[in-house]
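Dear colleague,

Following up on yesterday's call, I've attached the two folding results inline so they're easy to grep. Please treat them as preliminary; we haven't cross-checked anything against experimental data yet. The first protein's sequence and structure tokens come first.
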Amino acid sequence: MLLIVAVAFLVYTAFATRLFLNYMSTPVLFLVPLIAVAALILTKVFLTRGDALKAFAASCATIVMVCFTGVIGLFPNLIPSSLDPAYSMTIYNSSSSKLTLAIMTAVALIFVPIVIAYKIWVYRVFREKISPGEAAGETY
């Protein structure tokens, strides 16, 4: 049933929006929604076989490919304007300046490893279970 709804939604989207204009100009892009549908089918196949890990991976692939379907269809628009296409938010008029991107890249390169190191340290400190008595402050 979900497959029928998903395909119906894709067909409706073709008529209700301009989402498929990029797909029509570059037909090879139709592989992305086809992969999404295939991953959805594989999710059901893996669930019936009892292979939960593969079903989870196929479900994740479905979600990613459906998101990519929308992003590819909207490119370069992020939020299309219903008033005038000139008012649409695009990746070009919505991006940060090169200086801002350079600064944020440097900040990410410095602080992401610090956060990862902190998370590893916290995990190591709290890795052992404690007894209810130790949690209440009693020592043995």
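Below is the second protein, in the same order (sequence, then structure):
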Amino acid sequence: MPVAVADPAQRPRILVLPGDGIGPEIIAAARELLDALASFDYEERPIGGTSIDELGTPLADDVLAECRRSDAVLLGAVGGPKWDSTDPDAPRPEGGLLGLRKGLGLYANLRPVKPLPALIDSSPLRRERISGTDLLVVRELTGGIYFGHKERRDGTARDECVYSTAEIDRIARVGFEAARSRSGRLTSVDKANVLETSRLWREVVSEVAADYGDVELDHLLVDNAAMQLVSEPARFDVILTDNLFGDILSDEAAMLTGSLGMLPSASLGEGGPGVFEPVHGSAPDIAGRGAANPLATFLSAAMMLRHGLDLEDDAARIEAAVEAALGSGLRTADLHSGREGERLVGTAEMTAAVIEAL
């Protein structure tokens, strides 16, 4: 699995990109948590809508250069209605994410989905349906329809989806390596009954499987996979899929945990720094209220420590502290169900509880 590890002889250098909406709040909370663990050097730069307002672009060249000089990048969230537009030439906050992924060569996105015991009843699915769920979505991140040629002309819009054998091969190997280190099962998701790119995807994944005889491979069409994620999520171990399908399926899988506010992610490439961010959006409706759930950002920081900085023990400490805080009954608004033993808290109190649990 791709990983970029900091020089152990120096303090890790983390570039923080707070972004928009609740991004600055959850990034500030994550810095507070990280500082309770160890000493880090931080640099902060704008991205997304904030960068559009300040610099006229969602990702400035010097910010991308600063990312390359860092050991890891911790990102909050981007986007919001302020920058929504149907004008194809208008800069969009999401362009900052796409530029970051392409500019750093971050082709592998890892999104673990494992409902914590304290939150198992917060999921919209019944306890018995999600019990035992522990899966990893491996999403290809720099190819496909998001990066294909786009065109609008004479009342017609066009988005091109392109994948090469080499792109599919490298992400497939990430998926197989992950499955080999877990339960040895990989489900490749495509739409091979309709799309030519999916037929190539299935062919290449099947060829790569020959190098991983200890991993059990099955193929699922994306519509069937979406259904089975809610009907039998525990059947999955590693889900390998392309950029578009991975975006959708990982958000669906996040609800197994009770809230998008619980799902972390890591975006990795070869040799350079990774980008670590919560999967949820910028939630502009609650920005500035101190109500944001910081836990997905904390868990993303744990992934940063594990996959980007080779600090496994500290990563495990954060994960255990998050579980302990939830086990004590604390809940942010997105997790609060009103059940006996729960107590509604905001960002600051949840942050303090996780730090105390360290």
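For the second protein, one point worth flagging: Residues 123-257 form a domain with the Isopropylmalate Dehydrogenase fold (CATH 3.40.718.10).

Best wishes,
A.L.
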